Amino acid sequence: MQTDSRTQVKIINADPSAMGLFGLAIVTLVASSQKLGITEGLSYAIPWAIFLGAFAQLFACIQDSKRNNTFGTTAFGAYAFFWFAMGANWMIKMGVFGSTLAEQTDGKQLGFAFAGYLVFTLFMTLGAVEANKVLLIIFILIDFLFLGLTFDAFGIAPHIFHTIAAYAELAIGIVSLYGTGASVLNAHFGREFLPIGGPSGIFKPKA
Fold first, then answer.
1. Tens digit of pLDDT for each residue in 52-103?
2. What are phi and psi of 132, to 5 degrees?
3. Residue 97 C-alpha from the chain's centroid
4. At what angle do helices 57-66 and 17-35 cross, to 10 degrees?
5. 194-199 contact pairs (CB < 8 A, 24+)
6. What predicted TM-score, i.e. pTM, was given to this entire model?
7. CA separation (Å) from 82 to 11, 47, 188, 207?
8. Assuming Cys at both sites, which of 81, 91, 156, 189 could form a disulfide with 96, CB separation 3.0 to 4.6 Å?
């Protein structure tokens, strides 16, 4: 008699949030320094946009999909491809792909993309309400970032909205660094070493 013996193996993936937040933190710190006039040019911003803003968040997206985390997968994936696109946009603007592309840019096209991301981020902010307070703060700041970028790209009070975008981006970097540290140390020590705040319990009952 043949016995059917099967063994189930459960693969547990580490939470990739720290890696994704770290990528977000570094690219927004670098990009905001340029918007605020602390640094000049985009040459050194492009590698950080591609490797930290894009690839680090794409890695987190893929890992979150393995954990069946729709919210994390969507958020990290969407912003990863945003930074891929921004890196390419900056290279076009600088003439890396030739003068023809550089001469035919229209900033209002970026405005439509930023507006789409603003709407997307507003939806994600609602989701973050039931995640934790640190993540909620980050998404609210991203709302202000895309609000500023959208109006700036359309030429509506560009100085004011450029400044709003710049300071919101700087704040995103700072809060994301805190979120990175909290995500790593809380998991490492097995307790809430750095507080992040729990879900608000507005849309879902508190556990």
1. 999 999 999 999 999 999 999 999 999 999 999 999 999 999 999 999 999 9
2. -155, 165
3. 26
4. 160
5. 196/132, 196/133, 196/134, 196/135, 197/132, 197/133, 197/134, 197/136, 198/132, 198/133, 199/129, 199/130, 199/131, 199/132
6. 0.93
7. 30, 14, 31, 34
8. 91
